[in-house]
Amino acid sequence: MRFELPKLRYPYDALEPHIDKQTMEIHHTRHHQTYVNNLNNAISSLNLPDNITIEQILKEVSRYDKAIRNNGGGHYNHTLFWEIMGPAPQGPMGGEPTGELARVITSTFGSFQQFKELFTKEALGIFGSGWAWLILQNGKLKITSTPNQDNPIMDLAPERGIPILGIDVWEHAYYLKYQNRRADYVNAWWNVVNWHIVNEKYKEALKQKGKF
Ligand code: MN
């Protein structure tokens, strides 16, 4: 069993000017690749089934070595992160969710604007390195965060659920362009969220309702 670095669906410069090309390239080819390599090293001595998924490992992560928690989390989190981003959308609906997800965000948080403010506050409130998440928990949307490379699918996470949106607030995600200005990075990041994919992830998570 070997995990692999997923290919991006867009070029490294596609998220400019919000996320710069050099950050994307280093983040993907070095940081994420390192998590993949270290994860493969950590599982190489274990007798895991060939078809085991990263989700299956993380749902029982407390059984495994800390290296699997850190690097397996890193692999899962970054894979999701690349998926839920894309070139800033054009047109009147650009930058906002549509369809069922838009309706549920409004009914859960009051408005999309209110949701953005709460999620941004969560991301800015993380001390040190970690991730802010929008998860589906018992069929309901919830904002939460995790330290380091933990995530809400891990059995040891205080708030469990299926992530449909997440932002990396490790300094390596923004330091080259934004230095210590995490708020500027988070505000810019909203421009490159691919709401079509987030909506698909929401629908997929609804089908798994009951597992969390
Ligand atoms: Mn990262």
Task: Give an overview of the whole structure.
The protein has 212 residues and is mostly helical. The protein is 45% helix and 11% strand. It has eight helices and three strands, in the order H-H-H-H-H-E-E-E-H-H-H. It has a three-stranded antiparallel β-sheet, with helices on both faces. The structure holds manganese (II) ion. Residues 27, 31, 78, 168, 170, 172-173 line the site of manganese (II) ion.
Bound molecules: manganese (II) ion
> Main β-sheet: number of strands, strand sense, barrel status?
3 strands, antiparallel
Q: Enumerate how many helices there are, as a single number.
A: 8
Query: Which series of helices and strands comes N to C?
Result: HHHHHEEEHHH
Please state the average pLDDT score: 95
| Widest sheet: strand ordering | 2-1-3
Separation of termini? 26 Å
- The class by helix and strand makeup works out as mainly alpha
How many beta-strand elements? 3
How big a fraction of the residues is strand? 5-15%
Task: Note poorly predicted spans.
Answer: none
From the alpha-carbon coordinates, what is the Rg to the nearest angstrom? 17 Å
Using the alpha-carbon principal axes, give the shape: globular
Helix content: 40-55%
